[in-house]
Amino acid sequence: MTKITLVGHCGVDGPRLQAQIAEIVDAAEVTTANDPDQLKAVLDGGVDLLLFNRELGFGFKDIEGVEVMQKVHASHPTVKLMLISDYPEAQAAAEAIGAVPGFGKADLGTPKVKKMLRNAVG
Fold this sequence. Notes:
This protein has helices at 13-24, 36-45, 65-75, 88-96, 111-121; strands at 2-7, 28-33, 49-53, 55-56, 63-64, 80-84, 100-103. It is an alpha/beta fold. The longest helix is centred in the N-terminal third of the chain and has 12 residues, at 13-24.
């Protein structure tokens, strides 16, 4: 089973993303992590792909997703990271620290997103 975790996504976007990802990636277990303790538990338990929001609110206290991605990549270099953001400069920053190419929320439901997610966990 593929384990995918959404990191720092709000109550509106989180369930929508969760449903679409589960539909795209067969047999995926899609969970959420909305604070550092939840993220640590996911990392300790094993995860295949972390999908970060550009700005992490909630328990992350409004930190940039790329900043947390960089820390995760340093401590867990084999975990695949992806940024969900419509901003090209944010995507470039994420890829520069080792993330796989991501997508924006406006792209949800498109063949592009299906291909990116399947490639990331394939």
